[in-house]
Amino acid sequence: MATDETGYEPADIEPEWRQRWAERERYEADPSEEDKTFITVPYPYPSGGMHIGHARTYTVPDVYARYRRQQGDNVLFPIGWHVTGTPIIGAVERLKKGEEEQLSVLRDTYNVPEDTLEDLETPMGYARHFIEEHYKAGMKQLGLSIDWRREFTTEDERYEKFITWQYETLKDRGLLEKGLHPVNYCTNEEQPVTTHDLLEGEDEEFQEYTLVKFSAEEDGEEVVYPMATLRPETVRGVTNAYVDPEATYVRATVDGETWIVSEDAAEKFELQARDVEIHERIDGADLVGRRVDNPVTGDDILVLPADFVDVDNATGVVMSVPAHSPDDYVALQEAKERADDLTEYGLDPEAVRAIEPVPILSVEGYGEIPARDAVEEYGIEGQDDPALDEATHELYNAEFHGGELNDDYGDFAGAVIEDVRDELKEYYQSQGDFDAMYDFAAEVICRCGGEVEVAEQDTWFLRYNDEEWTAKVERAIENLDAIPENTRQQYYNTVDWLEEWPCIRNYGLGTPLPWDPEFIIEPLSDSTVYMAYYTIAHRLQDVPLEELDREFFDALFYGEDAVDDPDPTALELREEWSYWYPVDYRCSAEDLINNHLTFFLYHHAELFDEDEWPQGITGMGMGLLEGQKMSSSKGHVVLPDEAIGEYGADTVRFFLLNSSEPWQDFDWRADEVGSTHDQLARFWTRAEELIDGEEGDRDELQDIDRWLLAKLQETVEAVTDSLERFETRTASQEAFYRFEEQLRWYRRRADLDRPGARWTLRHVLETRLRLLAPFVPFMANELHERLTGTPAEDAPWPEPEAEFRDESAVASEALVEDLHEDVADILEVTGEDPETIRVYVAADWKREVFAAVREAGTNVGAVMSEAMSNPDLREKGDAVNDLAQELVEFARGRDDDELATLADLDERAVYEDAADFLAREHDADVEVYAEDGDPEDPAGKADQAVPFRPAIHVE
């Protein structure tokens, strides 16, 4: 445990508070007369241990929960455990097989004792270990203010009854259907999988490729060479094709046609519900030199060899459009350069060199061959050039949004691609020239180790594209407090592309599909409205399992009129559910917007009334460790118990909360965490000194005390505003670091032994401890209780105190700070060690010009008109004009109240009061003069004075 010579010992403080919270059941929340706040976070999936990235995810909502409690709310912050699906089963199987990588993760990364491994050899034994020994223990160590009565797992029988109710309801409403649907499919487990089941490629979404059916007559039959593209409009620009000469291809009958595709592609077509029969395997080299006909133009094109062809992607036969693809342009140029070497494949070098790009559209900013222009602009020298991807992306984007098809496209000629791509694809598909397939652009691997492909399965799916359902969700998004605001559009975008969602698995943990129990409801589909279950989870334990039927939950969620004979217990539980609902805020990773979080909105919008829909969602960023992505499998993680053991829970919390805003990525760096600990230790030491010292006297405040108290009110306001928006970094920075800057200045300016200063510092400490309680609850509660007799969390959230608002004190001290900095800058530049510092305050006529600025605003012409109405100013002519421009710049960005406060200040008196301080700081006599008061001015500096920026002379 990190300690500090000052005596800050987290290990002495934190366990006592954990025990105290547990014994007093401090965070157990029941309905009351108070306003409520219901905040949730995704329940963890305990297929491994909790790491520091998880800690940040759960600590952010804890800060908000603690803040709302101090605001007087009755706060519910629950947690459960998500075990649905196959990742835990896969982990258990790998453990039982003795796979070294799995054993290493368990032993070395998550410190599972050797004699405990056997306990992990059942799915729920495995899950329970990580729930109890990692997640739950870690959450308690962090001091998360969770109501532990309400925890459950998705394998609990009563939870399954709740999910059964949900899916029977959706089915009865026509929002579940059965039919063929493309799904992510594990070829090892032979069942659909979702994002949560993936080891690699979690961010990959399968795409629908257009297959352009090039063909040739071979041995008296027509043979199709399907080539995949995401740009079907470029079909008229195809100049050649590529195959991998080292790969294996097949001749196969696919839905009654003879196709030439890679061996991998044939397997994919079988998965996608096509009738496939393989007749022979063919070496890729045997395909080189063949000519195939373009189905749209009738032109024949040459098949060339290329080692960049990925036969595991799409069909393994690649079409080339060098006029509009920088990749293809570079590949063609390289093929021409090595044309003589291609004779080994029986190719005529001149035939290769004769291939030229064929333009099919025009786009602003590019010439006849756009790909060539892009390659030349980026200076691309080969296919390995990293700039090639950027050039390709930029050209594709420009062509999609602005590319106009040429006259060869007939009815589509002159159209912009984005307006006609789908129509063009459908047209050629109807002519039999195009087909389609699904595939990933990159490798996707299941947690079990199997390859994931796209398969069309006869499955049950949720009809997320239902118009009425979609309309409700869009209304929910419109009314949602989306934090940050820019995430709102991501929800709309997700709704736009969502179609049907397969919601079942062949096996795994989870709730059986009620009407077809051979299937299991998949992980993303059983985790949409479990927040409602939290509200009554602890009380359902007293309800006999057999009573938890459809009518019970209908009565619970829809009221006594929903069923003929409502269960009294259900109606009683309805009161608790109604009290807590809706969910006020859900904190979850932003990368879940395109599935879980949008599904969360869908199911709430359908199953509950509008006033019960989620109120807000706060997006969460990802965690890095020393600049690199965390990885449990590689052991590149920090475990919370280890971090807490070294630094203390408050340090861990504080670093996670103020290193970035919740929706930004954070980077756990040991040296910075250590620095955070040291800063908290210094805070602790100063606090102890104040607590142990004299109380002071409120009646003996001086101007500098009033300034600090005024800055405190600004801090209270800033922290409160930030926490209302979940800006934990801004809030913690304001409460701690930025106010420490004010304190550093105060300690330089004030006699800290004065009774007024002692009272001020103790009052400031008491307020700051309440502001910091959500962030560092152990330290804040301990110190606040020592200071006042009450833990900080039991004291109300601070509100700005009107009696301590003092704009004049703030403005005056800002002038002193500015003057101090100006003097320091002069001394640094000149290198002088002055005996005397003379300060000249602007003449009264210059204040009159400032008055004109206040009256006329920040338009120089208007200011001059106002100033020239004063005969005395009119006589000064150009001097007034020069000063007016300077003061207009000064006034910009300052509101009327601030300018009024400055106008009322006696600027000379402010500097005179600070003269002794400035003399101490700079070890020199300080003399303050008025510019127009016959000052001592040996260097002729006085006339350079401007209101609120005095002239300075040092000697």
Characteristics of this structure?
955 residues, six-stranded mixed β-sheet, five-stranded parallel β-sheet, 16% strand, globular, disordered N terminus
Write the layout of secondary structure elements.
Blueprint lengths: L9 H14 L12 E5 L11 H19 L3 E3 L10 H10 L3 H10 L13 H20 L14 H16 L3 E11 L4 E2 L5 E3 L6 E12 L2 E9 L10 E4 L4 E7 L2 E6 H9 L4 E8 L7 E3 L6 E6 L12 E3 L5 H12 L11 H5 L7 E2 L7 H9 L8 H16 L1 E2 L11 H14 L3 E6 L5 E2 L5 E12 L3 H13 L1 E3 L4 H10 L2 E3 L1 E2 L14 E2 L8 H5 L2 H4 L9 H9 L9 H13 L4 E5 L3 H15 L8 E5 L2 E3 L2 E2 L10 H8 L1 H10 L7 E3 L1 H23 L10 H22 L3 H22 L5 H18 L4 H12 L18 H24 L5 E6 L2 H13 L3 H9 L2 H4 L3 H14 L4 H9 L2 H7 L1 H8 L2 E6 L20 E4 L1
Parallel strand pairs: 1-2, 1-24, 7-10, 8-13, 20-25, 24-25, 26-28, 29-30
Antiparallel strand pairs: 3-4, 3-19, 5-18, 6-7, 6-17, 8-14, 9-10, 9-11, 12-13, 15-16, 19-21, 22-23, 26-27, 29-31
Helix pairs in contact: 1-26, 3-5, 8-10, 10-11, 13-14, 13-19, 14-19, 17-18, 20-21, 21-22, 22-26, 23-24, 23-25, 23-27, 25-26, 27-32, 28-29, 28-31, 28-32, 29-31
Task: Briefly say what this structure is.
The protein is built from 34 helices and 31 strands. It is of the alpha/beta class and 955 residues long. It is globular.
Fold and architecture overview:
The protein has 955 residues and is an alpha/beta fold. Helix content is 45%, strand content 16%. The protein is built from 34 helices and 31 strands. The chain has a six-stranded mixed sheet with strand order 11-9-10-7-6-17. A five-stranded parallel sheet has the order 2-1-24-25-20, sandwiched between helices. α8 crosses α10 (370-378), α10 packs antiparallel against α11 (387-402) and α23 (703-724) packs antiparallel against α24. The longest helix is centred in the C-terminal third of the chain and has 24 residues, at 807-830. It is globular, with a radius of gyration of 36 Å. 45% of the residues are buried.
